[in-house]
Amino acid sequence: IAAAKEGQIDDCSCNVDSLDNFNNNKIYPRLQSLLTKDYFRFYKVNLKKDCPYWADDSRCAMKYCHVEACHEEDIPAGLKAVVAPHNKYTMESCEDDVELGFLNKTLSAKVIEDFVLWEVYDDSQDNFCIINENDSESEYVDLLLNPERYTGYKGDSAHRIWHTIYMENCFRPTRTSFHAYIQNDKLSGMCLEKRTFYRVISGLHASINIHLSAKYLLSEKKGLGLISTPIWGRNVEEFHRRFDPENTDGEGPNWIRNLYFLYLIELRAIVKASQYLQKEEFYTGNEAEDWDTQLAIKDLLNVANQFPNHFNERAMFAGGDEAQKLKLEFKNHFRNVSSVMDCVGCDKCKLWGKLQTQGLGTALKILFSGKFDDHNTPDNYIHNSNKKDFQLQRSEIVSLINAFGRLSESIFELSEFRKFSS
Ligand code: FAD
């Protein structure tokens, strides 16, 4: 861990100490409170989708993989509404556009329908991840009831997922083995974009493994009959096993640096979308709660904007046809990663894996779709007649802020683990 703390975070002009301070004192406490608000707490997700790559090897029998179901009465009324008032793809919002002169009012419903479908298609081209918030099998999950922590998911099934993501979906430097591939020093010959792809996946992997070490199953207290109460807490040994250089061919500190790198990417995306996010209503149907959420978001964005050295996305995909081809490839690889999440054989891990890849996909969309470029003044968001261009679906906003919350907590946990090492 000490090695990871030394110096700069590669590909960003920023050092680890300043980022630790900024995160642990400013961002982390704010996110902890924000993420308990109803808007961010309920996430709609399909955990039943078939794995498109191999037969199901689900290990849901493992008791800590179980996802606690949501009680119908706990879901805020505003989220349950069949046609969400803020869904841009309803006929209502399309008719608003008609009012604006977008389409001639005399157009038939069929034409409007086609137009809506085309818009959905058009927008989906910007997505770095497959979104299926509105399919019939999606259900709300209360994230506070289902914290990300140790589940016992490991072995071939977990390895197959990581292996597939690294070997089949990351850009590979040359034909090389899994172990050679996951060494950061093999990345030096790669261009920034390909290196970035590997580093965001590795950063996500590091974050997941920090969480399971920080909320480890330490023991089970036997109660009456068959009932036992799990005791969760930090497992320092597990953390060292996973990240110390001597246990990881020297790679552990690089994986931790990749986590910082991913944090900077998501932070930059949030800052880039901040004018847009400030205008969101965070509608749940409870006026007082929605107002509190709006204030808490403004406060978070205000602080996020103060961080001086952000990731510079303009350095990526800059150039002509080759760069555009690379961007398309990057997007396709990332979509594959998001679909591999349907193959995770533990529902709790799948839930957080899907949420975090969707959050990252949203960050990449904000950074690279071009729709959030050069619109950094509030007026552009209010008056621009193309304001529909800037809309994000609710699940994208929820996943983006929750995914960033996961990374923020990982960085906080790293400083807790460091206390045990010194
Ligand atoms: P793994 O973490 O499985 O890693 C496999 C190999 O990848 C390692 O041997 C190492 O060579 C390399 N590697 C490790 N870390 C990195 C990195 N950061 N960057 C690059 N290469 C690396 N378990 C839980 O208990 N709770 C969860 O919530 C949870 N969520 C998961 C979500 C997903 C999507 C997946 C795929 C797995 C999840 N797991 C979870 C399982 C967990 O990540 C590990 O796979 C499991 O604990 C087994 O760990 P391992 O020591 O065998 O190495």
SSE topology:
Layout: H1 2-5, H2 16-34, H3 38-41, E1 42-45, H4 77-80, H5 91-99, H6 109-124, E2 139-142, H7 155-169, H8 178-181, H9 192-214, E3 216-222, E4 228-233, H10 236-243, H11 252-272, H12 274-278, H13 287-304, H14 321-340, H15 347-368, H16 378-383, H17 394-421
Antiparallel strand pairs: 1-2, 3-4
Helix pairs in contact: 2-13, 2-17, 7-14, 9-10, 9-11, 9-17, 11-15, 11-17, 14-15, 15-17
Flavin-adenine dinucleotide binds at residues 148, 150-151, 153-154, 158-159, 161-162, 182, 202, 205-206, 208-209, 212, 255, 344, 348-349, 352-353.
Structural overview:
- There is one protein chain.
- This protein has 422 residues and is mainly α.
- The protein has 17 helices and 4 strands.
- The chain has helices spanning 2-5, 16-34, 38-41, 77-80, 91-99, 109-124, 155-169, 178-181, 192-214, 236-243, 252-272, 274-278, 287-304, 321-340, 347-368, 378-383, 394-421, and strands spanning 42-45, 139-142, 216-222, 228-233.
- A two-stranded antiparallel ribbon has the order 1-2. The protein has a two-stranded antiparallel sheet with strand order 3-4.
- Helix 2 (16-34) packs antiparallel against helix 13, helix 14 (321-340) packs antiparallel against helix 15 (347-368) and helix 15 crosses helix 17.
- The protein is globular.
- The chain binds flavin-adenine dinucleotide.
- Flavin-adenine dinucleotide binds at residues 148, 150-151, 153-154, 158-159, 161-162, 182, 202, 205-206, 208-209, 212, 255, 344, 348-349, 352-353.
- Flavin-adenine dinucleotide (FAD) binds at residues 148, 150-151, 153-154, 158-159, 161-162, 182, 202, 205-206, 208-209, 212, 255, 344, 348-349, 352-353.
